[in-house]
Input
Amino acid sequence: MAVAVVPSSSGGRQDYPGRLTLFVFMACLVAATGGLIFGYDIGISGGVTSMDPFLSRFFPSVYRKQAAAADDGNQYCKFDSQLLTLFTSSLYVAALAASLLAASVTRAFGRKWSMFAGGLTFLAGCVLNGAAVNVAMLILGRVLLGVGVGFANQSVPVYLSEMAPARMRGMLNNGFQLMITLGVFVANLINYGTARIAGGWGWRLSLALAAVPAAFITAGSLFLPDTPNSLLERGHPEEAKRMLRRLRDTDDVGAEYEDLVAAGEASKAVTHPWRDILRRRYRPQLVMAVAIPLFQQLTGINVIMFYAPVLFKTLGFGGGASLMSAVITGLINFVATFVSVVTVDRFGRRVLFLEGGAQMLAGQVAVGALLGAKLGWSGVAAIPPAYAVGVVVVMCAYVAGFAWSWGPLAWLVPSEVMPLEVRPAGQSITVAVNMLMTFAVAQAFLLTLCRLKFMLFFVFAAFVVAMTLFVVFFVPETKGVPIEDMAEVWKAHWYWKRFVTEDSKGDIEMGCAAEAKN
Output
């Protein structure tokens, strides 16, 4: 049985004339900085929750439990606190709700204004968190940060996919994940430095400095051009054609423009995108929008990135050493993402998905085995430094596997397979599922680590097996396929072709527009 098919050149266009211009590159670079705010928060939240002054001020029960565990207590359970995890995960509930609202803003006003709204709201959250005097201020600040993340994560991947030439779409879209990993790494470095500030106020600086990446995307979005797709969707055809010529640096944009116009007409005909995306003809795209971000969070990656300092403390590292270990994993995450940027348009999405899945599976099994062998079920044991370093090395290999596969591709694939008429709604679903699962995993991790002990990592390993099989059988290759010709991919797939067929006149996205004209 064939499980993945790349459409032939006879089935649909493989590319349009034009090249990657400096204008497109700079626009994508500025837009991708929207990933910095998400990444910075992932890195900073885990760091500050491992700082003793922060814990003693806002979460004294956790501070006392940690001190008790230092005297041969249960290492698995010393950070188990629902209030502490609520501080971390409240952002993701807000991001979920905001991403649904962002779909309407993105469709009505354009992608850049969603980015601007996200950056501005994130800035407000930074002020509240940096000045917090109680848990309520912390969580309210996190909610505002979440609104910012929801708007940015909904609009940036769509913007990047629409701006990029088809043959370089993977590379440019992966810039979003690259910025996320850069944000994580910088946050880890800042945590390492601020934890050493005398007086115990370094956590305020860590939280407040989130305003720097927020300022980048807020100011940068004001100078971004609209995408031709968005201009057509909002009724500006001449401006869209001028923009397309500028983006591709050629006057020979007739074929691409015609497909965009056909996509725009289909988009205008859809007045209820949230209802329409549930229709049978959009079933493949809807499954990708739900399953891929769901599986991404079930890899366990955000457990590692959120709680890396906390987890390394559990392994017996001191406060400073645990933060430095988080810096190391953050650096690996950032550097490994470059592998995806360079290879995604050469080897394709499926190769990276499958290799990364195998590597993550080995990493989760190894971490579970190492922790089980040393801590057992009791969680009471002294971990030798060399043994703990071995766990860090295995975690780094796991993080690298994620960084060049499920990290960037979980944002790229859902954004590139959506037809224009349901693209904002589809991307909102992707972000909402991502944030819902991030919330659930973050809220449950410390509790389940306390209950399941080292077996938790084998649970994540089982999820990695399931998601890798999903890729094998249901995720088609989209390398080099123009974004408006993506229907050809579904029509050629062994399973999805039953939902998108030649018989469903008008039910196929704009890849069929070209056939209708021939």
User: Anything to note?
Assistant: The CA atoms of residues 267 and 426 lie 13 Å apart. The two ends are 32 Å apart (CA to CA). Residues 1-14, 502-518 have pLDDT under 50 and may be disordered.
